[in-house]
Amino acid sequence: MSNIQEIESAIQKLSHEDLAALRHWFAEFDARQWDGEFEDDVKSGRLDSLAAEALSDLREGRCRDL
Asked: Please, which residues have CB within 8 angstroms of residue 49's CB and are 6 or more apart in sequence?
């Protein structure tokens, strides 16, 4: 499978059980990918300014309980 169209076609041919298994696998795969990107952003400092802003808002009373 070398392109999206081939992948889409293969997915359309899956049984209900195999499609459910694919959904489960993809949800876990996607979560791992997102977690990795988030960890990379934290390690590189790309989120430092957002964290500082959030802490400043908390200290200055601009937050509310959810």
From this structure: none
Closest by CA position to 7, among listed 24, 22, 27: 22
Q: CB-based contacts of 11: which residues, under 8 Å, 6+ apart? A: 19, 22
Q: State residue 2's pLDDT score.
A: 78
Q: Backbone dihedral region of 15: left (phi > 0), alpha (psi from -120 to 50 degrees) or beta?
A: beta
Rounded to the nearest 5 degrees, what angle is found at the Cα of 41, between the Cα atoms of 23 and 54?
A: 105
Which segments of the chain have a pLDDT < 50? none
Instruction: Please give the model's pTM, rounded to 2 decimal places.
Output: 0.68
Question: Which DSSP symbol is given to 62?
Answer: -
